[in-house]
Amino acid sequence: MRTTRRDIIVRYAETDAQGIVHHANYLIWFEEGRSDFLRQQGVNYSDFEKSGYFVVVAQAEVKYRAPAFYEDRLSVETTLEKMRGKVLAFTYRVCNQNDDLLAEGRTVHVVLGSDRRPASLPAELTDPLRWSESDE
Predict the structure, then answer these.
(1) CATH code of the domain containing 58
(2) Up-side HSE of residue 53: CA atoms within 13 Å toward CB?
(3) Is there a contact between 75 and 95 (Cβ–Cβ < 8 Å)?
(4) 4-42 pLDDT, tens per residue?
(5) Is the pTM of this model over 0.70?
(6) Is residue 132 in a domain?
(7) Which is catalytic among the residues 7, 16, 100, 127?
(8) What's the angle, vertex CA 29, arms to CA 27 and CA 30, rounded to 5?
(9) Which residues, at least 6 apart from 20, have a Cβ–Cβ distance to it below 8 Å?
(10) What is the domain extent for residue 114?
């Protein structure tokens, strides 16, 4: 499976009164990783929407392992775990500059057509996302 990496520097606004990153930011970073994953494959979410498809989050999981702090340099690793029919699933790993695992997670997405009903993405949008046996 193909994995991409997106680097992030923790902003002050992402921390709480104790100087620790607020837990909700990890889901935002997962979204950044997911969007960047698609861009690196030559596809944008806006391409889906222009074609009349919407990819919505149906499930999100986060396992927190260690805290992140202001100005930490993080990497978000994103892997397209599953692409089948109307469902896409991504996994994530967030590590700091010391390569310590801070969080890992998974999101499951359902594809909706312009009528807001589940639909499969057309080949022109999924072909760039397919990986070969040699990528694994």
Answers:
(1) 3.10.129.10
(2) 21
(3) yes
(4) 999 999 999 999 999 999 999 999 999 999 999 999 998
(5) yes
(6) no
(7) 16
(8) 60
(9) 67, 68, 69
(10) 3-124
